[in-house]
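Structure first, sequence second, as always.
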């Protein structure tokens, strides 16, 4: 399917499924609460949706809502494919697989496993290896491979086994015979399912043996950046102005995760993603250092100081004591809102907010040696004192005689 991020058409006998895969940002993962005492929330990144319309079994009736059968079949396929997905660090995407059963006269859940594996590899999801599944039935102690609908109805067992060449990922066993089934038959069913699974995987590998190297061109691109806590406010800006500007200019969506100290960028294609990532790095890297001269815009003037806005959209208060040397408001009143002035960063308030000074910038730009000396004296007074190595060693206590 050209418009899907990944698709496949799998048919085994008279059972056929049309599967499609959709990739999205990790924030679309669902938080599942199992409502158990002391049980943590689980982050589900893989969705598997199973649907079988009445037309798949040549019936004419209304399409009903989800039932226990559809939910159970989806869980079997989900458990078979979930261990094969890469970690969030190497593949920061949420994935949804939709299995639409177009014809059914056998195990449609095992067909969904095969079709889901194929569409994930077609989408470019880096799976560790393909997966397949088969159903083993039982009639009068005779094992049947890939049972049909009538064999499932009159049989004594329906054993669904899904996995890879190297192991089993999910199993569902329905026993319809009173008194149970001998363990020897179950072991034979597992062996028979392994041989059949290898044959199905060989047929699947003839079409696509491994995941494609990259996602489709029309699939969204996601990258999760680790950003220090102190730099996140610079990406947000005053009232979210910087974040909105980044999203508009780079055609992307930015999500902030404070606790994880991460920024999630989602873009329509790889070009926009690289552009947005560089824009975020530019904003973070624009952190001024002590002694830098910046040009800012006056946005408000009060008796206690002047509020200015820098180029990155952040607003800062310059105290009246740092605006003029004498603290005279008449010198401040010479400026109006909207004027641009040059300021010097003389330190930081807390971990991130720069502390600006107008008089320090004037002294820096002046050619008067006295102004330069006053500037050095002010910066030296603001610099934290050097910690003596010997001061950290406690003096030994005198022993009593």
């Amino acid at each position: 399917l050209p418009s899907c991020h990944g698709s496949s058409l799998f048919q085994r006998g008279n059972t056929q499924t049309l599967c499609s895969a959709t990739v999205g940002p990790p924030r679309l993962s669902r938080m599942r609460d199992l409502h158990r005492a002391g049980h943590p929330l689980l982050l589900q990144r893989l969705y598997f949706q199973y649907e079988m319309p009445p037309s798949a079994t040549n019936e004419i009736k209304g399409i009903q809502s989800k039932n226990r059968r559809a939910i159970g079949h989806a869980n079997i396929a989900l458990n078979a494919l979930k261990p094969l997905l890469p970690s969030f660090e190497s593949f920061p995407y949420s994935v949804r697989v939709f299995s639409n059963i177009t014809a059914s006269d056998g195990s449609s859940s095992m067909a969904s496993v095969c079709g889901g594996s194929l569409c994930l590899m077609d989408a470019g999801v880096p799976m560790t290896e393909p997966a397949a599944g088969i159903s083993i039935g039982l009639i009068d102690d005779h094992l049947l491979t890939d049972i049909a609908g009538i064999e499932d109805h009159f049989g004594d067992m329906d054993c669904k086994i899904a996995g890879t060449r190297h192991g089993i990922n999910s199993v569902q066993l329905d026993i319809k015979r009173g008194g149970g089934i001998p363990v020897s038959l179950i072991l034979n069913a597992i062996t028979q399912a392994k041989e059949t699974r290898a044959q199905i995987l060989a047929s699947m590998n003839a079409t696509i043996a491994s995941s494609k190297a990259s996602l489709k061109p029309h699939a969204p691109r996601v990258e999760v950046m680790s950003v220090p806590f102190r730099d996140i406010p610079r990406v947000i800006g005053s009232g979210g102005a910087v974040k909105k500007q980044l999203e508009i200019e780079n055609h992307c969506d930015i999500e902030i995760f404070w606790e994880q100290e991460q920024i999630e960028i989602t873009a329509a294609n790889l070009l926009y993603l690289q552009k947005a990532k560089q824009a975020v790095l530019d904003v973070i890297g624009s952190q001024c250092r002590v002694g830098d001269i910046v040009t800012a815009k006056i946005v408000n003037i009060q008796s206690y100081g002047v509020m200015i806005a820098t180029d990155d959209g952040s607003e800062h208060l310059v105290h009246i004591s740092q605006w003029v040397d004498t603290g005279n408001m008449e010198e401040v009143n010479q400026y109006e809102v909207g004027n641009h002035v040059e300021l010097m960063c003389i330190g930081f308030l807390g971990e991130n907010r720069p502390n600006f000074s107008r008089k320090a910038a004037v002294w820096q730009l002046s050619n008067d040696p006295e102004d330069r000396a006053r500037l050095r004296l002010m910066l030296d007074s603001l610099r934290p004192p050097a910690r003596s190595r010997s001061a950290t060693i406690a003096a030994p206590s005198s022993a009593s005689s």
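Margin note: The mean pLDDT is 84.
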